[in-house]
Amino acid sequence: MSMIRFWTKLLLAVVISSTVACKEETHVPPQWGIEDPADDREKNEDIVKLGWTNVGDTFGKLPNYISVYKSPSTLQNKQAIAYIAVADMTKATFDVLGDIGYDATAGGYGGKSVNTLTQFYEKNNRPIIINAGLFYYANAFYFSQNLVVRNGVLLAPNQNYYSKDWVTMWYPTLGAFSQMQDNSFKVSWTYFTSDKVNYSYNKPAPNDINKAPLQVPNATFPETATVLNAKTAIGGVGVLLKDGDVKNTYVEEMLDVSSTSNQPRTAIGIRADKKMVLFVCEGRNVTPGVAGLTTLDVANVMKALGCVDALNLDGGGSSGMLVNGKETIKPSGGTQRAVLTGVSLH
């Protein structure tokens, strides 16, 4: 072998060896759509141990900080079809949807249009959407009965009165679920005063339709109040859990949500580990044998799921959850009801 051929082969061997080594040491960055295998690990083992099944794959790709579960066949000893979305709120964003505000012509808070959950999805493209607060229609306007705060702005307060005959008046404090400016979450009872101060309390005014009305809530009744300084908030009827204790204050809050009968329900809660839980259940025998749950049932379910604070939202024909635009429960009216507000996670 000539010296030229020998050195040529040696040089080729060195180049090949170096190329292989480089390939072995090169780190290929993850591409869009390729997930870390760690993302496939179950993130809420405690929920799965309660009999809930992770069904996220059924609805398509979700952010790795949001998971969706279907309930066991019974909840609170009742036949059930329910779904929850569980989101890590150190990564997820909580929003309230709906075109809502004060309308001087209508003389109240609300909006001129409502949306089905599918319409909310088409407009906002959120992976998780549920229905939210109560409302009613009068004089071509949809009046909001519940608190809405978006980007730190109060768009509508909780309803601050109740009467059966417009002679005797009660002034109830209604429940609210809030994300505060420091990104903490809490449930409280609120009252919007005549001078437009939105007070927040850690206990409700103890109203009861079978008793005489109490005084109008203020800075010191039903206890020392704070002004609600929320970033995002939604109101409902019936604080279910407060600081880990079952409350179910539908009597004190006075708006009729058929709390003691089995109905489709929607609820929102927060766990101590900063995971939000959105809950919906089917009812009214749309699926034969599935009548729904009482608000006390929902409170107990949310507590079992690890929530420390939870609020009952609008239910009945309004109850629904979309995951990537797909329905979970069957609407009790056969089709989705158009609603004034929704809650989304993304």
TrEMBL record:
Residues of the signal peptide: 1-23
Keywords: Signal
PROSITE patterns per the UniProt record, alphabetical: PROKAR_LIPOPROTEIN
Keyword Secreted: no
Origin superkingdom: Bacteria
Domain Phosphodiester glycosidase positions: 182-343
Protein name as catalogued: Phosphodiester glycosidase domain-containing protein
